């Protein structure tokens, strides 16, 4: 058994959600935890195990047990069956962990098995006793819920033990009573007196239990004790995040990691806004505000703990363990803001082109994110003349408190109060509230509303944000029912009709955060990949001549960024399949998706067969058809993910004259065009009507580094050259066209612009003004289809044979 801790390593706390553990337990225990244990002393905090559906998870089953217990003895059989199901689910997981071993060590298998059976038997007896009464107190319900985390920790510790990693469960269900005594009144008094410091005191006891585990990895229950008024009511369902934060505070961790099934925090909900971008970092205040107004980020009490202890928090994806995720920086708060303060920040070129906070002393140019909180009621109260405005507010809030309704937003005037509150879900509570408020004036309650909130660090000091927000919503025809700005320096909140919420999100995301839609973003977020890179920051002159050796993917990246787009230069050798894979993986890691692939790599040698050496032939085949095929193979799964991927290939139409004098070159280039035709047919067969692959080739020679050699000898040759912009204009037009209209086409730049976009004047593309470059391609190209085009004969698929090379 390998001990995973060492006194000279820094502490790292990892918290895993139940769904992550249910789906990827083997990955977490076999890869993620061991990898981090190499350089850290680990604390692992677990939620109750869940599966693909939360409704079938342990916590959901335990809540069902509580409901059955409250039904009385008539539900006894169902209750027993449900507890047995919970037990059997965990035993099945335990069996699957050790199924490859003929004989399991007693400590590794039999002890956790015995503990699972024992805990479930104790729960069954407790619930059967509760059935007699037919009621469970909130604290009793806490005791039931706590079983899920206990069983999860026992199971995870066993899984790690099976992989020769020393681990030990740490059960915290009695930690509150250990620190503050068993009296609920004493616990409540301590919570009332200490406030957030209540959790600091608990953290000291947790520290003792964690350190007693060394050298084993402590596997800690996310449930940390029965609170005075129940943990669920006092903290809420995010209690396991808070427990992880207390563990981090307890051991003085360098970082707290919360592992989920998402990449981190986005500029908007990517399920509603497909163009939402992953944020590499946010401030603690931003994370808190986003959580409150609808984003499932981090529990506010968790943020309080790490902020006070100055511990960084990182959200990571269990499906992408090597991705950086989103860092929540506890030091980057907004506490120094003063009323009336206005600050303009002008960053130097190249700074703050991403929505990233951690860029030295500069701040974001734009707000950070936009979120929505649904299921909102909007309450309007018009005060009668017998009630003073101050008294009205007191009376309104007393009624809200009495009905346990929390206010999200408020706006007041002399005789009017408008409140946005989360719908209690209980119609009688709403009717009762309306009846009570009508004593003080007229009351109107609007249902089906949403709060849209724009969040950004020190946003209140940024001139023009409110104007841009209101203008964007007006242009999108979204009516605003209530506005709140000023109470928080980092947010603006607006109440809109629920049916307009997504429209409002899109408008703000596009016009205020300045993040283009997917369609627009295709041309603004670019990865430039080639073999050569350079020091673009020190390039002189800049920008360099695009046809010179000073022009590299690095300088192109800088040009795009300074033009307001996003770009990343990645070195790649298309002859090396592993290099291509790394390039595509890096692209998806940075931008979260891949929409368009343009393959412009090419090796050239124009000579007869006799004058073409084998090395030249092999080079052209490896760069041209083989490089294209490998790149398409790696990119295709990502392009198909959203069903709208596009591929542009620089290869010619197929006709016999092209082979003359350059047979070896033509073999590769025509092979690329064959791939275009064949893959297009695959898309059609598979019903991928929104995907397309298209080949493009110049009708006249394009100015390039290759043509520069000719024009240096004979400047008059420039009259037969066109600018590269004709090529890029044609490609952009192809990408904007419906996929079905360009799929499988082998096009010439001039012909496509003329036939599909209506361009008739091509003079602007001439390198030498008032000249007409000579067309080097045939005026008419052959049709490659045959009469029996749709007859496939006997259809075969070698992939079904599962043959291996």
From TrEMBL:
EC number, as in UniProt: 2.7.2.4
Enzyme superclass (EC): transferase
Compositional bias ranges of the Basic and acidic residues kind: 785-805
All copies of domain ACT, residue ranges: 454-526
An example Gene Ontology molecular-function term: aspartate kinase activity
Pathway connected to this protein: Amino-acid biosynthesis; Mycotoxin biosynthesis
Keyword terms of this UniProt record: ATP-binding, Kinase, NADP, Nucleotide-binding, Phosphoprotein, Transferase
Gene Ontology cellular component annotations, sorted alphabetically: cytosol
Coiled-coil region(s): none
Catalytic activity field: L-aspartate + ATP = 4-phospho-L-aspartate + ADP
InterPro entries membership: AceGlu_kinase-like_sf, ACT-like_dom_sf, ACT_Aspartokinase, ACT_dom, Asp/Glu/Uridylate_kinase, Asp_kinase, Aspartate_kinase_CS, NAD(P)-bd_dom_sf
GO biological process, one term: threonine biosynthetic process
Region of interest called Disordered, as start-end residue ranges on this chain: 776-805
UniProt cross-references to PANTHER family, sorted A to Z: ASPARTATE KINASE, ASPARTOKINASE
Family that this chain belongs to: Belongs to the aspartokinase family.
Record's protein name: Aspartate kinase FUB3
Taxonomic lineage of the native organism: Eukaryota, Fungi, Dikarya, Ascomycota, Pezizomycotina
